[in-house]
Amino acid sequence: MELKDHDLVEAVEIPGLLYAERPFLDPEGREVPGLHAVWITLNNPSQYNSYTTEMVKGVILGMRRASTDRAAVAVVFTGAGSKAFCTGGNTKEYAEYYAGRPEEYRQYMRLFNDMVSSILMCDKPVICRVNGMRIGGGQEIGMACDFSVAQDLALFGQAGPKHGSAPDGGSTDFLPLFVGIEAAMESCTICDPWTAHKAYRLGLLSKLVPALRVDGKFLPNPLAITDRWIDEMGQIVHGEPVEGEARAIAKKTLAGGEVDLSPLNEAVNSFVYRLAMTMPGCLSKTIESLRKHKLAHWDRNKESNRAWLGLNMMTEARAGFRAFNEGSRACREADFLLLRRRLAQGAVWGEELVDEILARAHGRS
Question: Is the same domain home to 28 and 101?
Answer without folding.
Answer: yes
